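G.,

No rush on this.
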Amino acid sequence: MLFATAGQGWVFVWMVAAGPWLSLAADLAFGAGAAAIFCGALVAADYGRLRLFDALAALLGFGLCAAALYPPARRAGRALSRAGRRIFVTIGGFRWIKVIFK
């Protein structure tokens, strides 16, 4: 077995095991950031008092953002993806590219 490939199975196992922990850390960081934004807005708007009205308003704002901003952003992402694929296919059709990557 080549030296560069020896032990790669264990490296793969360790990286798979590290993946769930990395995902957990990212989720915790996102939750902490979202909570900080919510608390900061609560302090700025109502001196830190939490009432049902405030929580419902925050949920309504989240819902409006998700309904109004997410679909157009998703469409824009798809359009960019399609444009990137078209550019890649066009460049891939050039003769000099075929010669270089022959």
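When you get to it, here's the other one too:
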Amino acid sequence: MKKKEFIQEYLNRGFSLIPLKNNSKVPAIRWKKYQYKKASLKEIEKWFITFNDPNIALITGKELIVIDLDDIEKLSELMKILPEINKTTRVTTKRGYHFYFSNNGKHKIRSINNLFNLGIELKANGKYVLGPPSNIDDFTYNFKIPLSEIQPIPKKIIEYLEETLPGTETGIKESGQAPGGVEYRRRKALSLPRYSGLDKYCIEQILGRDLKAGERGNKGERNNSLYILYGLLCQNKNRSDHSKKIVIIKNNSLSRPLTDEEMKKLFRRRYNFKCFTIREILPYIECDKCKFKFKGGVLRVGNIIVKNIMEISKLNTCEKAILLLLGTVFEGEKPSISKIALKARMNYQTVQKAIDSLKKKGVIDKSLYK
């Protein structure tokens, strides 16, 4: 087939195309708008006049979903989980295969890098793939199984995406009434709503985890995580009803979700959680990537230094040093005096004296740093 025939077949199937630079995967134009609109045949013909033998890329998402398999050794594992890949359109790439599936706008599918926990990429929602007969370093992308054999997106992929957030389905009950009095419009593809507090890494970790239920009366990480998630969303300036919506969607994504009655109890009370409290209750939480923690010289409104900015000039050198440590290195934590002394390179007694003085002056809480 000539390149023009490939393009016509792609257009006939409703695919959105963009040009890439010759012998490259780099777009030759500003291409983002073609995630939402399709280029006409006239536009595409102009690209081939303007650019020197460009490669072709196909936009994934609405019409086309692609499994990008670079590691051939994982093919047998993928076939066991997804036997449909033996029948659907297959493209031979430089490192492996692209498996094409049709979507026809039926499902809102997101891209992920770890499909079925195999480290295989699923390309959707606006990502692009090289399409035949594109050429990279004398290797030509070609159809091993033709486009005419393309299969619908397998149910197993949709089910896998439903189990992780933000998913393609919500699991909201048919009545449309969610626990806690939050109303939902019924629709197939309701993604996780946007929320304030995106820089709180603990929120992201709770949302991304399949929370485990406790055994025999032990609440376990599921109940504690959902309760903390609700509290964190509320204290990060989200309306109560919006916070409930996000927590309910997360609950419904779990393999063992809480019941409606349990969810109602969870929403009856709120609590302002501190970093050290969250770490004590949820051992899986890691803080190394959190933007809320002091990084790059940015002090937040609730920071101990900011709250006591007017008192700093009244402190002695040792007290200032300890306050700075508490507001930077130990921001949001509850360190022991020994730990502070080690970091400050001071002896224990000196740090203890400075802490006691800061407590008397009302700079730090009397119940902390013992």
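Residues 55 and 134 are 5 Å apart (CA to CA). The chain has three domains: 3-162, 179-281, 304-360.

Enjoy the weekend,
O.
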